[in-house]
Amino acid sequence: MYAGAAIAVGLFGHATPAGVAWLRCLGAAIVLIAWRRPPASAWRGRPLLLAATFGVVTAGMNVLFYEAIARLPLGTAVALEFAGPVAVAAFGSRTVRDFLAVALVAAGVVAIADVRLEGAALGVVFALGAAAAWAAYIVLGKRVAEAGAGIDGLAIGFVIATVLLSPLALGTGEVWSSPRLLVLGIGVGVLSTVVPYALDQVVLRRAGRARFALLLALLPVTAGVTGFVVLGQVPGPVEALGTLAVVAGVALRGREPGQKPVPEPPG
User: Fold this and answer.
1) Quick check: pTM over 0.85?
2) pLDDT, tens only, 214-251
3) Which of 199, 253, 251, 244 is closest to 224 using CA atoms?
4) Of 11, 12, 2, the residue nearest 183 (C-alpha)
5) Could you give the CA distance from residue 187 to residue 112 in angstroms, rounded to a whole number?
6) Per-residue pLDDT tens for 27-70?
7) DSSP state of 259
8) Of 34, 51, 33, nearest to 42 (Cα)?
């Protein structure tokens, strides 16, 4: 996920943020279709409609987030976007313990993200739009997982999203003249979409939407731990407290009442 984000930011000098997001979508579609080869039944009726909606919403979320980080500090954009999962978690909360878990996670993400209220106001709009799309991604992703479509639905969704959002390819002109840049653009799709979103489908089959939304808060924690272990970046007191708050909030949140893990489909 974070390797892909780093590559994407590096491509902003050669393509528009929306264009890079479209390349990410294209790369994901190519790899997922080649890997899964969804059956003909998945390309018609309700499964197709659900997959298409999921794919377009997810691709739109990526476009909005890339436009946001092109205008705002990354930490600020991440914190604003995380309002989406927090809203899903809060909506699914039923007890004081659940609401406390949401509050801890929200405060922890803000602390880790090092929010700085600077940059273009349009960047804030894009980040909040990405937050709304992230909330929709969780809700629709859960439905795709429960319908048994899983990664096949993800593959079909990204194929349709790539076609519908193809006008964004106009912002990728320079990339097509450089095999290296094209490979990097496709690589963003593999690192930031294929691997993490396929894993999301596995987790969504076993966790409720609210609990899954809180688990997403482990993403900035993972980034901080990676920076410490690999790069020797020692977190400050605020970031360290934020990490502890996120971990505590995720641990505090229990399974949704009556929720049982969904068994994997045969084969």
Assistant:
1) no
2) 788 777 777 667 667 765 767 778 777 877 887 787 77
3) 244
4) 11
5) 27
6) 999 999 999 899 888 898 898 999 999 999 999 999 999 998 88
7) -
8) 51
List pLDDT tens digits, range 83-96.
888 888 888 777 88
CA–CA gap between residue 50 and residue 57 (Å, rounded): 11
* Assigned token pair, 86: 């927090």
Report the distance separating Cα 143 and Cα 137, nearest Å. Answer: 10
What residues contact 96, with CB distance under 8 A and at least 6 apart?
none
For the chain, helix, strand, coil in percent to 5 are 80, 0, 20
Other Cβ atoms within 10 Å of 209 Cβ, number: 20
Cα first-last separation, the chain: 28
Distance CA 51, CA 254 (A): 29
Degrees (nearest 5) of the Cα angle 7, 12, 17? 105
Measured over all CA atoms, what is the biggest interatomic distance in the chain, rounded to whole angstroms? 56
